[in-house]
Amino acid sequence: MANIRDVARLANVSPATVSRILNDNQIYKTTDETRERVLRAVTELGYQAPLKKRPHASVQETSGFSVGVLLAATKGKYSDPYYLAILGGIEDELARLGGTVSVIQTEQELEDQAILNRLLSAGLSGLIMMRPLSEPLFEQLHSLIPHIVGIDTGHMPIDNVEYDHLRVSRMAVEYLYAKGHRAIGYIGGSVGDAPLKRSRRYRSYLETMADLGLEVKPEWVLNCGWDDRKCISLVEKTYHDHGLPTAFYAASDLMAMAALRALYQLNIRVPDQVAVIGMSNIEMSQYANPPLTTIDVPAVEMGITAARIIAARVRGDTTLPKRVLLPSRLIERDSV
């Protein structure tokens, strides 16, 4: 395992300089070029700095602290209203608590070494992440950023704020069943290149269908990769090749609204011929045609809760990592 002397040797600096840069010591100034060399060496060697116990700090001492946010993004960085709602909750609550969001990146952007180095050298007091990371990248961030809070990530040993994926899918399928539907399809995706079976929402859909004694037809399981245009195309193709189920559970409101668009283009009446239920309750879902029945996931509250936890950590909270599970609820509108 690499040590601080290995990093210093590769970066052509002294071990003391490495220590100052990794601990963001502002007393001794270093050039941007030196900082870049050190962080590049840290990355290449996979060096993990020893974690130091931080003294308890007062609210006054931590006012003005800065936090980075790692967005989950399937397309454009700011294109998903669900994640933007979480970000809004984080920013508003941090502002109230005396902090700021100073860096916003996506996992894909961190594949660029220069962007990763800038994140590591930003002097952040904490990081809030909205997507699970590869173990090496997570460990590297965790070794250099004092406090990390996950939103729906499952990473340990850090604080996590989440909702019950298994429960929301069960709520959606059971609601469709109660409305008389027995032919229920699924629309969703998975994270990155992971297979659909890795999705907790999809696994819960399968389990609930089995518990209800309903058949899952593969041709009615549409893996859109969280791409709305692909979703529209797959719904249309399924209609022409196999026919459609009487209802779809879409594992995000954006996919549900794309399905509504496809059904409209096919002159299929919703909910008379095909019902659609979504998941997340983004603001625009109430303005869909017809207004979308969905499962409300408290996105803003997740952001607020994560901001409160990381502010408490910056102020010296050293209790064991928390897992905060926020409730979801059914929003009945006109698409079922």
UniProtKB/TrEMBL annotation:
Name used for this protein in its record: Transcriptional regulator, LacI family
The species this protein was found in: Aristaeella lactis
